[in-house]
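Lab channel / #folding
Pinned by the channel admin:
"Please post every new chain as: sequence first, then the C-alpha cells as a reply. Keep commentary short and put observations after the output so the thread stays searchable."

First post following the new format, from NK:
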Amino acid sequence: MIAYDVKEYQISGGPKWLNTERYDIVAKVPAGTTNEQVNRMWQNLLAERFGVMLHHESHEFQVEEMVIAKGGQKLKKTAEDPAALLDPGPPKFDKNDELAGPGYVTTFMASGEAHTVAKGQPLSN
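Reply from TO:
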C-alpha cells in the first residue's frame, strides 16, 4: 500500500494470500533518496519477487450524503480538549451504545455487507 500510495479500501481482488502472508524485507537505501524513488524501488521489488502489479479501475457505487436537516444542525461543540491525547484502543460506548468519548465510528460496504469500524483517534488527513 505504501509503495503504490493506496489505501486498504482501494484494494479489491487479488490473491487470498494478500490478507494472510507477511514478509519482512530489509533494504538499504542510498542517502538522499526521495520518497518517490523509494516507492519506485518498492514497486520494482514487489513486481520482480512477488508478481505484484497495480491496475487502476474506476467503480461507481452508491453513497450517502450527510446534510443539515430542515430544522438546522443540533451539533454541540465538544467540551473535550482537542489537543489532549486520546486513550489507546477503540472508543468507549455508554449503556445506550452511544460514543462516550473522543473518536469516530464509520460504516463501509464491502462485498455487499456493511462493516462498522470504531476508532479511538480523530479523523485526520
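NK: The chain has two domains: 8-50, 79-125.
TO: also worth noting, Residues 79-125 form one domain.
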